[in-house]
Amino acid sequence: MNSRGLLLAEETLKIVISLIALGFLVYFLSALYFNNVDGQKQIQAESSIGRLMDVVGNVGSNSELVSEITPAGWSLFAFNFSEKKPNLCGGQACICICDSITFNFADRQIKECDKNGACGEIPNLGYFNEIKISSPGISLLVEKQNGGIFFTKK
Amino acid sequence: MGVFSSQKNEFRFFSKVFNLDCLFWNIIGCIIFFIKKGWNDMKKKGEMATEQIVLLIILIASFAILLFFLVKLNLGKQTDQEICHNSVITRGNSVIPKDSVPLKCQREYVCLTTGGDCKKMTDPSIKKVSSKEEVYNALSENLANCWWMFGEGKINYVRDEAFSNLYCSICSQVAFDDSLVKIFPNGQIDQDELYNYMETNNYSNSNTYFEYLYGRGSTYGAIRQQLQSQGVTFKPIDFSKQYYSMMGITSDVSTLGWVAGAAILGGGLVLGIAMLPIGATAWGVSTLAGVAYFGGGATAGGTIAGLFVTGESGDDYLSPSIIEANSPEFKSLDCKSITTLS
Fold first, then answer.
1. What is the pTM of this model?
2. β-strands A74-79, A131-132: how paired?
3. Residue B294: phi, psi to the nearest 5?
4. What angle do helix axes B132-149 and B75-92 make, rounded to 10 degrees?
5. What whole-number percentage of chain A has pLDDT above 90?
6. A20, A79, A82, A87: which to substitute to probe chain B, counting the most B Cβ within 10 Å?
7. Of A139, B126, B214, B236, which has the fewest CB atoms closer than 10 Å, so is most exposed?
8. Set of chain B residues whose Cβ sits within 8 Å of the Cβ of A84
């Protein structure tokens, strides 16, 4: 029984270490994969935000349509009334394109936009709900109403 | 009934043959023996498993303690600054085209507080301060670190271009917690006071902060006089806003060429970058090349975006400055690109 006990302890230890190593491997590979995918999506998001900001800077009384807002799967958010905003916004009202978080607590959405996202500051931003970007991309109507800038999915 | 009586008889029979008392105590003895043996075995088996578990727990606990201290010491911050500094040097001294050597510089998010929760930022690097001097020191250190990371004006890390452009680097983004009103009741920091602090406090044994950034022998008093005579001032730092601690480099040796280019692109003094020539004041290795300002005119109350110096490398640099995030002053600099990652 003594040797059986020793064997059992050794095997358990091996299994535990193997599981930890396997966990690390899975984490490392998935992180590598998602980093690559998110990197590509971030470039698309930056490009889309850049185009939106150009339109916002020049939009007059007329509305303007901006097409091919990507990446698909991510969302457009407005951060204007809450005290906390992504650091990328520099403390001002802003729009961000980033992945949508399912369980949003402890500022997870804000952190996600900071970590993997693109933001642009719009001081007179009007409020709108999250706009999901569907495949292959969406068109957004940028409007100036009562001095505020609003975005609507078309 | 007959069955029971026959069993009783058998029992009596066996009692007589095997002496039941003796058998009873023998069985009890055996049971106790085996329980004790099993208990001892179990105990031994348990001891081995416990040993392993204790070892594992100690290992995990040690790892957790090490991790905790590493996080608390924040060695990563120092490493980030060194990685950035090394990448700037590598790029500056590269024999291959500079664009092919990436800069590995990361923006740091800093929040100054007297003990508040710095809700304005997510996961900032919190710096606790308790007096005006500590606030000025934190900001001065920030600017000096930025200057050090990008080569102290000794390295040209951008490629030459036909038209000169300004390449900006945001070293850190600074937020001021509301708790700072205990120190600054009006919720603002006068940048004159900050520069006075930099002029009178040492960065190293031989240099004040101001000398480190603008060259040996330089004084803020001399610059302030010139700025006042030209009608431009520093905008106060407002706690309700966030600020960039940033610097920049022009991709051309000539400041005049850069000013002309910016004026053409930006549309002149008000919309684009505007420069006031500040004497030809040579201080040690650096020379103050001019002052970038926004709004107004040379005598109509413009605000300073940043001071430009000609560095030891002969290139013109936007010296480390505190500029409001995404403000008109920042936009007036017309940065061609931001070389730091956010």
1. 0.72
2. antiparallel
3. -125, 135
4. 40
5. 31
6. A87
7. A139
8. 119-120, 122
